[in-house]
């Protein structure tokens, strides 16, 4: 991933997907495009599709087919109540992690000065 550590990105991909889908239902390729436009240009469909499947299997997303004007029906994903709960949990965990990393990082910078 250009500029992003792949292991770090793997750890937050579910959070990113839930956040995008909470804002707007989406289909696989459209979600990939939104992620790429949001600063993850090298994020591939081969990474996103399995993550969407895992979130659906966990009950955080549900899918439905919607006819397309240019081709076969597309599989869209929408948030479930479980997904909203998971998004709130993941948001809180992310905030706690970022705060802890920033605190340690700032302390290390102060000690180096």
Written overview of the protein:
The chain has 113 residues and is of the alpha+beta class. It contains 4 helices and 3 strands. The chain has a 3-stranded antiparallel sheet with strand order 1-3-2. β2 (61-68) and β3 (71-79) form a beta hairpin. The longest helix is centred in the C-terminal third of the chain and has 32 residues, at 81-112. The model has no long low-confidence stretch (mean pLDDT 92).
Question: Features of this protein?
Answer:
113 residues; alpha+beta; three-stranded antiparallel beta sheet; 3 strands; elongated
- End-to-end separation in angstroms reads 32 Å
**Helix and strand pattern:** HEHHEEH
Shape: elongated
Radius of gyration: 17 Å
Adjacency order of strands in the biggest sheet: 1-3-2
Largest sheet: 3 strands, antiparallel
Low-confidence stretches: none
Report the sheet-strand fraction: 15-25%
Helix content: 55-70%
Q: What is the β-strand count?
A: 3
**Count of helical segments?**
4
SS content category = alpha+beta
Averaging pLDDT over every residue, what do you get? 92
What can be said about this structure in brief?
This protein is of the alpha+beta class.
